[in-house]
Amino acid sequence: MNGDPGSGATRCRRTQRWSAALAAALLCLSPLTAQEKPSAKDDDEVSKLGPVDPYTGGDAAAMAAAGIVAYGPFPWADGHGTPDIDRVLGERRVLWVETAHFRIGFSMKSAPWPEAAAAKKQLQEEVKALRKKLPKVAEKPKKLDPWLRLHLYAQRCEQAYAQFHALIGTTDADFPAKGTRPGEGAYLGMPGKFLVLLFQKQSDMGRYMDRFCNMKADSSMRFYHDKTHSMLLAVAAEGLDGFDESGLHGHFLYALWHNLMNGLNGFRFPLPHWFAEGIAHCQARKVESDFLNIQIRDDEAVAEEKQNNWPVKVRRRAQHDGTWFPFETMVQWTDWKELGYHAHSQSWSRLDYLLQLDREKVGAMLRKLKNVPADGTFDGQAAQLRTLAQRLLFETFEFDAATFDQKWREWVLKTYPKK
């Protein structure tokens, strides 16, 4: 099994470690009946809901307005469908929705609104946008019930997909379905739709990952189903203990953008860490939240109440020699465990700088990195990509390593606040 482990997630004043891996594996599946089923005593809010979406009522016009292609059952990945997953997890414990580019399973319970004013306002704007498509959504719902949360995540998925298209300068028309191999499909080149599983319980996620992915994971995981060539993102709310709705939203976007980047033209090799992490963090940090998608290393001392203030933290390091990562060091990162707080924050800042210089050029770099034909070993291809990224940076922005360092530091000191 080949994996690309990701980083951890942190909240100011509270740290939650998790692992995220994108794995390619040949699966040896055991019979469905061999799996332990949830206890009948489980108090699952989703299982008590009726079978019909209360916001569309199953009406074709309402579904189309909301961007819903279908409800379950439908095929999933590697020869199994939603009925197979239901038999493992328990009937009616997952809500299933399909959109234009995603298939989504949802079993999270109702959630309260976030307490922070900025996060609450941002979520209210999302609900407002959803109400334009689903008039049955209350203007100011007292809580986020499972179906409402599912619609919000479906909206977030498709919004992220559209933003990704905008970044790389493409539309669906640029990815006609030509075949069943990676690079020939309709979904950024993948033949299968992108998959999302949002669980409340770690035990449910653990059962899915064990049964259908042949691996142990019960918190947050990115996985490649290599028979149907589908990119999966699975998250269990219990595994991100203490995260509010905005924290989960930010974590979700961070991981989803990784899957979109990896899926572009087929998952054959990992992107350079500094580049992919930088883009993912730029998207996740648009969500108003105290939660960060990082893992603070034991040798890093970062004041908990200031962990989220990346502009100030980066600026303070950029102004002193020896306290920031030179680009020649960043391009050599190959192990996610090397990427602590400062590596993540400075990767974010490097892409923050490049994106404000020219978003189209960043998108062009990403397209060129993912257009490289698969040739050689997984690790060997990754090494070639790291070298290619340096060359593309020079060709696209006319930056060698020293110039990139200089220009980035000047911009940081001019742009980011001192405190």
Structure description:
42% of the residues lie in helices and 10% in strands. The protein is α+β, with helices and mostly antiparallel strands. The strands form three sheets. The protein has a six-stranded mixed beta sheet, sandwiched between helices. A three-stranded antiparallel beta sheet has the order 2-1-11, covered by helices on one side. Strands 4-5 form a two-stranded antiparallel sheet. β1 (9-11) and β2 (14-16) form a beta hairpin. α8 (310-318) crosses α10 (341-357). The radius of gyration is 21 Å and the shape is globular. The termini are far apart.
Number of β-strand runs: 11
Strand numbers in spatial order across the main sheet = 3-6-7-8-10-9
The SSE order reads: EEHEEEHEEHHEHEEHHEHHHHHH
Helix/strand structural class? alpha+beta
In percent terms, what proportion of residues is strand? 5-15%
Please sum up the structure shown:
The chain is 42% helix and 10% strand.
